[in-house]
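Researcher: We're teaching a course module on how sequence relates to structure. For the next exercise, students receive a sequence and then see the predicted structure as tokens, so they can try to spot secondary structure elements on their own. Here is the exercise chain.
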Amino acid sequence: QRRVMGDPSTTKKLRVCFQAMSMRSRGLLLLPCLLFLICQAYDDPSTFPLSTANQNLFAQRIVAVGDLHGDYAATLNILKLAKVVDDNGNWMKEPGLILVQTGDVVDRGPDTLKLYQYLFELTEQAETSGGRVIQLLGNHEVMNFIGDWRYVNRLDVKSFGGIESRTTAWSVEGELGSRLRGLNVTALVGDTLFVHAGINVAWATRFKHTDAINQYIREALASVEKTAEDPIFGDGGPLWYRDYVLLPESQICSQLSHALNLLGAKRMVVGHTVQSNGRILSKCSNQLFGIDVGISKVYGGQVAALELIQDIEAQKVTKINAIYPQRVELLFDSTL
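Model: And here is the predicted structure for the students to work with:
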């Protein structure tokens, strides 16, 4: 209900529908009108509250990839390696397969526009095959929302047709900017929480649910001024927080466990902080996985993806693997 009534276009439609009724018919027709508008509002899966969008996403296999930073070739390479796409780059049509990309598609590399277009195409292909692409926002998407182009590649600008065209595309009303502002920042798939950088105890305590975090950020992104000033977009927010990855386990594992309990998850998967050795990071008894391995050639073109195997009937993760070019490394096995 929060999603429907919070959408100005849907609210306007509801008002028109209600005003069109005669006084006598309003009582009888209001409920069907509401149901129609609710169904219409939920036609676009990218705008689902996560409790609705992800409540049944106990797929057999989830593949998560971290920061892509403008490198189309490297992205295609890792998706093929993880058997998410075929040799032609098309969705594998594996029933129930879920791909999670944890943000930072943009900046540093030249292929920003090509990558977003490809991910949007994959999203459509996945949906027609019974799969799902969950694309999340990273701090670099938000930087571009507010006009911070410090890390923008000149060939990226050229691909948009120049500075003015790129600025328009990333604006609140722009075709790309408006679509990306509709993405979520965090996703709870089964009992695994995905987010770009990490959700600390303070934010978990304040919101207590991924839905609330996404709703708050979505509203904040509607205004460039609020996006630039709101502390949720600062160093301690879910798009910039690094302590889980950088600090010793003795300092952060108890905080991580507390945050996970508040958010109803058993583990957190994050990107953002590059693992220079190219390996998936596992900390705090597999409660944290860091998957930014430097996929873009700007960071060395390291290749790795995280794979989670779920028992659909038990609705829990049974195995977690790190996928590398020459091997698949078992990180967690519930039977051991």
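Model: If you want an answer key for the exercise: Residues 1-56 have pLDDT under 50 and may be disordered. The first strand starts at residue 61 and ends at 65.
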